[in-house]
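Appendix C: a fully annotated inverse folding record. The material below is reproduced so that readers can follow the format used throughout the book. The structure is listed first as tokens, followed by the designed sequence.
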């Protein structure tokens, strides 16, 4: 069933709805109408609970599938970090990158920003590949 198509009741349900609609329209007994209204409210409550349950279970299943997929992808996915040559940490070393190029662009911007500063004050960085657990 495509999620783009609207949910349509079956012909049997449409027939039952039409039959109940005629019964309600022809009924002059207020007590009977009250009983029908209460039964319809109870039925609506049950259907809403079923829809909510199905939605939650569907979301849980989708979440499990995404986690399983990310575990598969993660086992072959490379992760990169920038490290300082002196072993200290800073803003750049706290970041994780999904590609070498992404990390390189950040370093390139850093070195461009400090291009006029004193060589002795400049920090030196390296890009390394790390495993997921080490990230």
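Designed amino acids, in order:
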């Amino acid at each position: 069933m495509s999620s783009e198509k609207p949910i349509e009741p079956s012909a049997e349900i449409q027939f039952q709805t039409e039959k109940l609609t005629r019964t309600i329209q022809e009924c002059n007994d207020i007590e009977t109408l009250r009983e029908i209204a209460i039964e319809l409210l109870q039925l609506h409550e049950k259907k809403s609970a079923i829809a909510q349950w199905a939605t939650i279970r569907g979301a849980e299943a989708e979440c499990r599938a995404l986690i399983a997929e990310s575990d598969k992808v993660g086992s072959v996915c490379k992760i990169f970090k920038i490290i300082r040559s002196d072993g200290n940490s800073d803003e750049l070393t706290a970041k994780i990158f999904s590609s070498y190029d992404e990390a390189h662009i950040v370093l390139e911007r850093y070195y461009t920003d400090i291009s006029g500063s004193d060589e002795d004050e400049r920090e030196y960085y390296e890009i390394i590949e790390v495993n997921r657990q080490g990230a």
